Inverse folding.
């Protein structure tokens, strides 16, 4: 069987190891992965084996990068203009490992390159949108709707799905991805500590369902209830500002602190419902509560979605 050698060379050791670990989970038998931290090691390897795909840090000087023989050469760039040669393609560094993998193997690199000057710029980061899926009516297929919405949007742009229900069923919706271990509680922990770049840390805990990225939900409702509303809002703002996601789907439950404040931050609020007397009464009570508490802005961006159950 023909095997491609995929080589990663990056000075940030932890980032490179995390990237390698996530790539290993892709389980492509025709791809063999290698990791190096120095150009010297990489050169020695290139003298012995063919490098079919090279993914290298932009911090290495261009003349050193070009000395490495490789069939395809990708450079991890940050959110700034970088001058690459016509033998290099830029890939935005701070995105999930799944996004990087797909861009390399589908050849869909989201960067702009000037054919004359060779100037390459990572996609300009513009603030994305929060989309909420919330309903006071339970067990009507809300999560299924949120996931399908996310998958549909992810066909055109990067989308992240976050489940903030009190009992989300752990990894049930993503049960085929057995490699994922870290969850939303870990993300909150790292966000609070601010010890590492949040985007790098997110790349190690993000899974993929088709083109849709996700982070596993919190396993314990007590952890959910311990997060303040302002913490959620700051976390979402950080993700939208620093990550590549154009849309973040929030699948919200009633145990989320500051849920109305979160809904006010969203561009769109989808509210699933069913044609049933008790369900209509709950929906009307929810809408009336928004009016009485001065939250008409939530109503203005609410889209009701009739469900079939």
């Amino acid at each position: 069987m023909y095997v491609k050698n995929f080589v990663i060379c990056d000075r940030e050791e932890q980032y490179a190891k995390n990237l390698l670990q996530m790539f290993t989970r892709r389980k492509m038998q025709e791809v063999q992965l290698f990791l190096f931290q120095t150009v010297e090691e990489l050169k020695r390897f290139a003298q012995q084996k063919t490098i079919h795909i090279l993914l290298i840090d932009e911090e290495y000087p261009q003349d050193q990068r070009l000395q490495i023989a490789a069939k395809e050469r990708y450079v991890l760039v940050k959110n700034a203009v970088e001058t690459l040669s016509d033998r290099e393609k830029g890939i935005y560094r701070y995105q999930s490992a799944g996004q990087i993998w797909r861009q390399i193997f589908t050849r869909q690199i989201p960067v702009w390159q000037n054919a004359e000057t060779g100037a390459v710029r990572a996609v300009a980061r513009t603030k994305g949108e929060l989309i909420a899926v919330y309903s006071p009516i339970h067990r009507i297929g809300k999560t299924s709707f949120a996931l399908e919405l996310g998958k549909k949007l992810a066909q055109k742009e990067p989308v992240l799905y976050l489940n903030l229900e009190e009992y989300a069923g752990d990894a049930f919706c993503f049960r085929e991805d057995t490699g994922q271990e870290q969850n939303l509680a870990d993300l909150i922990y790292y966000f609070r500590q601010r010890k590492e770049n949040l985007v790098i840390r997110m790349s190690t805990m993000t899974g993929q369902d088709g083109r849709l990225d996700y982070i596993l939900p919190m396993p314990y409702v007590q952890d959910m209830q311990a997060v303040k509303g302002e913490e959620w809002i700051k976390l979402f703002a950080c993700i939208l500002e620093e990550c590549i996601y154009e849309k973040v789907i929030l699948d919200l439950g009633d145990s989320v602190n500051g849920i109305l404040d979160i809904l006010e931050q969203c561009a769109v609020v989808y509210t699933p419902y069913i044609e049933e007397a008790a369900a209509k009464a709950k929906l009307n009570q929810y809408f009336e509560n928004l009016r009485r508490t001065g939250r008409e802005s939530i109503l203005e961006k609410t889209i009701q979605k009739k469900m079939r159950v």
